[in-house]
Structure formats: C-alpha cells, structure tokens
Amino acid sequence: MSRRVGPVVPVLVAALLLGGCGTPRSGDLGPAPTAPPPSGAPTTDRPVPTPSRTAELTPSPTNRPPGPSAAASTGTRRPDPVSIELWYVRAGQLVPTRRTRPATVATSRLALTELAAGPSPAEAATGMTTVLSDDVEVTRIADGVATLRVPSTGDPATRRLCEAQVVWTLTQFPTVRQVRFDGAAPVDRADYTDLLPPIVVTGPIPGERVAAPLVVTGTATVFEATVSVRVLDAAGREVATGFGTASCGSGCRGGYRVVVGWRTVREQKGTVEVYEVSAENGARINTMAVPVVLAPGG
C-alpha cells in the first residue's frame, strides 16, 4: 500500500520500506538513543482528531527541516532529530523502545520502516523481535484513521501481534487515533492491551547510558499498584533500590515513576530491574530487566 494519499506513482510504492506480518527477526539499527522518552502510559484516550486529511503523518511545523537554500541563506540550524517509540515483541507480548532519527515529514513511514528493520543488538539480547515483514502497505491516513493492507500470511496469533505492533506504534502520533486493517472495523490500543506484560518499562531503554538520579518510567498492573526497582552493577551487585506506586491499583493499568541513585566509581555495564513483590512469598515476580550502561555516580 502506498504511504501517501491520492494518486501514487508506482515507483514511490516500491520505495516504501514498510513491514508486513511475518516471522520474527532482528536487525542492527545502531546505538539506542538517549533522548527523553515520549509518554508511554497506555491509554485509550486519543488526541482530538484533526480535520479530514489524506496525508502522511508529519511532525509539527517546528520540526520541519528547512530547504537547502533556507539553511544556507539564513544560517539557521536544522531542526532537532525526532524521537519515535517502537513496540516490538518479546515472549509473545508487546514491549517498547525508542529511536532518535533525523527529522522527516513522513514519520509514519519512518516508524514502520524501523519496526520492520527489527531491534538493535542490545534490544535483541533481551529477547525483542519483530513480526513485521516488508509487505504491509499503508493506503491512506484520514480523519484520524490509518488504513493498512496486511497480507494473509502467518498464523492468527502472529498476525495479531503484527497488528498490535503497528497500532501501538502509529497511535503515538496525534494524527492517528485508530488503525483499519484490510477494510475491517478500526481498532486502537485498547483492542490489544491483553498483549502487554504486567510491567511495561518505557525508560530507560536497552543499551542506554544512564546517570544518577535515574528516573524509571512505565506502566503496570500489579498488586496494590506497587512497583519496585533495583539497579545492578557489572558484577551483579545491587547498587540501588527504590519503589513507587502506579496511578492505578490491582486490576487496572496505571503509570509509574520511580527515581533511584547509586554510587559507582567507573562507567560500567549494568541492569535496571523493574518488578513486583509477590504477595504470597515476597519473591520478585513479573521482572523486566533492562541492560544499560551506568555512568559514575555518588
């Protein structure tokens, strides 16, 4: 499917590197970005729809790169890179990460291309994969609905994971509130919340260099809404702990924010673990481990 609305030259269609529902794979996209994460709290509240349009998702005017002549004649710097949230698959569930890429007016195309390319080595090491292949086509984006065509390949469970990746990724943009697949009724994030793990970590992301104090963010549906965090150094020693309360208790998902600090004398690899304490025996359960690089702190 084309990424643009209206008549589309076939050459453009061939140039779009989008993903289709296929077998899991991973790829090298370079180092993970260190920019602050976009809001990752799952919510069914979508932004107010924009006026009817049939165009690619675009960043705000302040994110539009000036033309070559404008940059040369005015001496103004090019706009900052864009940070996009990507939802990959791990153990049959959705998990987020981020990419920082050069500014573009076609952010939807960029996001789907990154999804199809697969996780970075640091992300793949945690078990992240993508089930998007290269044959999903976007036919239009209008009135807050992105319409896509997905080939009928793969088993139903894999296809649903593929759709969930697309929905959770595209609906981060204000111009997309829902996604329509193959002429079916539009769907949104609420249709795939069962594919989220009990604890989702939106920051930090795998491979990120982090400094103290570190703000750990995400969403969770855990006992008494209590989310615990610990930081391990390169030797596996616990160098920091903390806990916080999600905005919603047991039986519903809410956002959390936990701040932790540590004392280390050198930069080293480490791990941030976010987990729930079992009400039955006090064990750590539903743990999400994020490999990071710890900056010296004290």
From TrEMBL:
<protein>
    <recommendedName>
        <fullName>GerMN domain-containing protein</fullName>
    </recommendedName>
</protein>
<dbReference type="InterPro" id="IPR018911">
    <property type="entry name" value="Gmad2_Ig-like_dom"/>
</dbReference>
<feature type="region of interest" description="Disordered">
    <location>
        <begin position="23"/>
        <end position="78"/>
    </location>
</feature>
<feature type="domain" description="GerMN">
    <location>
        <begin position="108"/>
        <end position="190"/>
    </location>
</feature>
<feature type="compositionally biased region" description="Polar residues">
    <location>
        <begin position="51"/>
        <end position="61"/>
    </location>
</feature>
<dbReference type="Pfam" id="PF10648">
    <property type="entry name" value="Gmad2"/>
</dbReference>
<dbReference type="Pfam" id="PF10646">
    <property type="entry name" value="Germane"/>
</dbReference>
<dbReference type="InterPro" id="IPR019606">
    <property type="entry name" value="GerMN"/>
</dbReference>
